[in-house]
Amino acid sequence: MNILKFQIGLALAVFLTACSTRPLPPINFTEPGWKIQQGQVVWRAQNDAPEIAGELLLATHLDGRTVVQFTKAPYPWVIAQTTPKAWKLEIPVQDKKYSGTGKPPKRLAWFYLPPALQGIAPPAPWLFYQSENKNWQLVNKTSGEMLEGYLE
Fold first, then answer.
1. Three-class DSSP category at 80
2. If we measure between CA atoms, which residue out of 121, 12, 113, 98 comes closest to residue 58?
3. Which of 37, 60, 72, 94 is deepest in the core (most CB within 10 A)?
4. Are 57 and 68 contacting, i.e. CB atoms less than 8 angstroms apart?
5. Which residues, 6+ apart, have CB-to-CB distance to 132 below 8 Å?
6. What local confidence, expressed as pLDDT, does residue 22 receive?
7. For 84-106, how does the pLDDT look when each residue is reduced to its tens digit (9 = 90+)?
8. Would you call 62 exposed, middle or buried from its count of C-beta atoms within 10 A (0-12, 13-18, 19+)?
């Protein structure tokens, strides 16, 4: 488990250099306008990394905010949050937080899954595929990062 955490941490550290932490407003899923979906996902951080299966929570708000949480029981591993003007990525198992203003980094799938599921093509080099049975895959052909799953 420690080797896996190290690999994930190293991959994310390389991808997220030059990011600084800025607070985003707290999320309150009980306020009107949130649509929350849950499902399963398999994540691979890069070509030679192991695939990790877990639970996925995806929340979108009418005002453009999104939250994606990847949980490998019993811990949340990744929490990606966007607003129309900012983004934040948390890795609770490593006590790491990254954030910035503007569009989120193109290197991380978590930020591009919500718009892809709404029919908005992700930026290159990401490719999104969705089948009729609600299965989907978001793949970066360059890095090998991949999310594959479904939402209920």
1. strand
2. 113
3. 60
4. yes
5. none
6. 54
7. 999 999 999 999 999 999 999 98
8. exposed
- Token pair 């599921």 is found at 117
Pairwise CA distance, residues 44 & 21, whole Å:
25
Spatial contact of 104 and 123, defined as CB atoms under 8 Å apart: no
pTM over 0.90: no
Which one-letter amino acid corresponds to residue 91? I
Quick check: 25 and 39 in contact, CB under 8 A?
no
Please spell the DSSP secondary structure of 70-125, one letter per residue: EEETTEEEEEEEE-SSEEEEEEGGGTEEEEEESSPPTT-GGGTHHHHHTTPPPPTT
Q: Tokens representing 104?
A: 């989120």
What value, to the nearest 5°, has the Cα angle with vertex 69 and ends 110 and 101?
A: 55
Q: Are 77 and 69 in contact (CB under 8 A)?
A: no
Q: Using the structure block, give the residue that is written with the tokens 């899954």.
A: 113
Gap between the Cα atoms of 142 and 152, Å rounded? 29
Alpha-carbon dihedral angle through residues 94, 50, 42, 54, given to the nearest 10 degrees: -50
Quote the CA–CA distance of 22 and 94 in Å, as a whole number.
18
